Amino acid sequence: MRIAVFSAKRYDHRFLAAANARFQHDLVFFEPKLDLDTAKLAEGFAGVCVLVNDCLDRAVLEHLKAGGVTLVALRCAGFNNVDLQAADDLGISVVRVPAYSPDAVAEFTIGLLLTLERKIHRAWARVRDDNFALDGLIGRNLHGRVIGVVGTGRIGALVARALRLGFGCEVLASDLTVDAELAAIGVRYVSAEELLERCDIVTLHCPLTPDTHYLINAATIEKAKPGLTIVNTSRGALIDTSALIEGLKRGRIGGVALDVYEQEADLFFADLSDEIVQDDVFQRLLTFPNVLVTGHQAFLTEEALAAIAATTLANIADAEASRPLHNRVTAISVQPAGH
Ligand code: NAD
User: Fold this and answer.
1) Most exposed among 102, 229, 255, 332, judged by the fewest C-beta atoms under 10 Å?
2) Closest Cα to atom 19 of ligand 1
């Protein structure tokens, strides 16, 4: 199948080209992300292959459809950037990679948390400057602390297990359903409110839906345990960043580690080091000593990229051969869960 690959970085070329030896799709790589301005690049292609920050709203999908596109192949699990109703209306199939390496994201989450709690990022910057003073680097143990996991699906369950069994934390969880295996190792399911009130640290692993949008906001920050640390490797808009900044300024929030940011589509995955970043909210966030931000890289391991490439190309092959699309998402398929 002839596919326009958007937001294509060098590593996408490498892993997709390697996996394509088996499939022989006609892949054409475009570095820009997909939006209304770049949609014309896909004219004459049967499908587009896209990532989290590509824009697939109704206008873009209409443009794609007019140019012959009938398939959207996401190289990621989340699909909040796709207007699924519009895709259904236009007869465009949307396929995704539901699980490529939950371990990659879970391990990165633990890495961010440890880095923040033990100030490893600040220590590294000092040591590079031959500053070996320890003042200001006092951290906190994870052992014995109360940690909340919001969303105990594939990734959240791994994080909860590592924190409970690996570090000996008291783990509270909130989800729409209880994971019996986690409950059996002592993870206790509570309401989202109780979780925020009781936890020292909260890590977010639920999808971005209308229900979870701004889950962390001014009101929930006010009710949370003072000094709460928040980790988010899920989706940026789970957090109202302006409210987070207010919480940090007032000391209500004790630390923040983010791999995602609500306006990341304008920033992440690009080298902006020679430019003046115009996003004042993001720039303010970077000024806090107790904030650690990475640019949506939790998924970025050899194992995950190989798995993403293999599943994406298999999804495309299924569509080309008119086989059932196991990894398809439609507006209807995601409605029963309320998302
Ligand atoms: P998953 O579908 O396996 O698990 C999500 C869990 O969240 C489910 O158990 C679901 O019941 C629960 N949930 C839904 N609504 C909820 C709510 N209102 N409150 C509490 N729980 C709720 O998904 P996953 O594979 O574990 O991925 C989790 C998220 O991680 C994805 O949605 C995606 O946005 C993000 N992600 C980020 C990266 C990255 O590189 N940073 C990579 C992959 C996935």
Assistant:
1) 332
2) 175
